Amino acid sequence: MIKIGDIVLEDFPLLLAPMEDVSDPPFRHVCKMFGADIMYTEFISSEGLIRDAVKSVKKLDFSEFERPIGIQIFGHDIESMIKAAKYAESVSPDIIDINYGCPVKKVASKGAGSGIMNDIPKMVAMTEAVVKATNLPVTVKTRLGYDEDHKEIVEIAERLQDVGIQALTIHGRLRTTRSSVPADWTLIGKVKENQRMTIPIIGNGDVIDGPSAKHFKDTYGVDGLMIARGSYGNPWIFREIKHYLKTGEQLPLPDIYERIRISGMHLQKSVEWKNERQALMEMRKHWSDYFKGFPNFKQFRIRIMQMDTYEPLKALLEEIGAYYSNNDFTALGNDVKEVSDLPSACLP
Fold this sequence. Notes:
The strands form 2 sheets. Strands 3-4-6-7-8-9-10-11 form an 8-stranded parallel β-barrel, surrounded by 6 helices. It has a two-stranded antiparallel sheet with strand order 1-2. The protein contains 14 helices and 11 strands. By secondary structure, the chain is an alpha/beta fold.
């Protein structure tokens, strides 16, 4: 049993990472359907939130179905972070999360996100201030350190725990490490091995399937995993990992019927939640992954990328389904199955 404040989770929870223009309510909904235990909003600027910026405030949206849900905030000014935490608390999420992991230059260069790892005393002071400002459990997502000369996560973890955070997610890269470089889990393991640590330690980085999840769990002893890029167009990853950890067996990949059904649901909810054009633009990062491994998909991907209205795209999804069904397609060596054969746990 894992506890974050009063939130009780199963023994090895899987978390959906907060990702800009990805982990919005429509995508969180389909990930929850397939077993995500905790989800976080896209990261929200503290300055934007306290100024009532439309984009920042909209990111506070979530449904009861998504619980437990954390709202993630970031910023460089302690007073603004205090106000943002109180604002976020007013919509009654389950967790307030602080982003100390974003490496994007426009964020980090201002001393926010992973940029604050260059000033650990301020990082600790900001965390303590947010913990004191809210009655909700506060969690943190961060990296191994700022650069190769400052891999200080073992010390940072202790100090953040000492000021009251309830869980810590560690991404296995530095502020300066590119995503193309494999994540380094060695220091994540050292944090977990530290006998002073009593809060849950969640590992993040390169979790892409059941075998990778089992490797990180068994090798580094973390209390749970956070999944980011592995979830793109692949909300089934949560079900897949849980099944693999329980049985050692890999589930068959979702067939064309399931992919059409879930990608169509994701698309529809996106259109309902945001304006049509924005929804279609942001869905583009998912399409190749929703249909990964399907031969001749390029012809459809090109057409998808050119569409900016919902109904034609909805019709194209039906065309894609018919094309692969009529060609008796077998995805990556897995026999095509009827939707009715799928486990009931995956159905809405």
